[in-house]
Amino acid sequence: xxxxxxxxxxxxxxxxxxxxxxxxxxxxxxxxxxxxxxxxxxxxxxxxxxxxxxxxxxxxxxxxxxxxxxxxxxxxxxxxxxxxxxxxxxxxxxxxxxxxxxxxxxxxxxxxxxxxxxxxxxxxxxxxxxxxxxxxxxxxxxxxxxxxxxxxxxxxxxxxxxxxxxxxxxxxxxxxxxxxxxxxxxxxxxx
Length: 191
Prior knowledge:
The protein is mostly helical.
């Protein structure tokens, strides 16, 4: 087992946990998973004396729950506010691409890129769905006759779905923040 000063290890662990706690609310930074990894590394280097296997298992469970909360929160938000499967998939893909673009290229940061990419992805997914359905009634060659309001209503619903993605992120951030705070408190109590 490597010989590291325990005080230095604790300070580095607590700094990493603080970053994880902030990251549990802001998608630009790693969150509850970082808190779990920090606790695991601390436990390993201290021989699992103060922070034992049960604490590590509980923090691992919290990290897994945070990942599930992130996925379910955003999907639920989009679906709850009217997104189709196409819109939900577009939001997921757009969120990933937006986070990467925001971080690497645009300088706006991962958080804003993630939100903007998700909202844009929902819009694009819904647009592609409507385009794929075409303007003809299924089973006939007759053009579909739709009142002008239907298209406007579709885009209104798409706008609501995009807003639902944002609401889903907020729900997910709250759940992850609670799990992150609980993880840090449990770690500190174990010390």
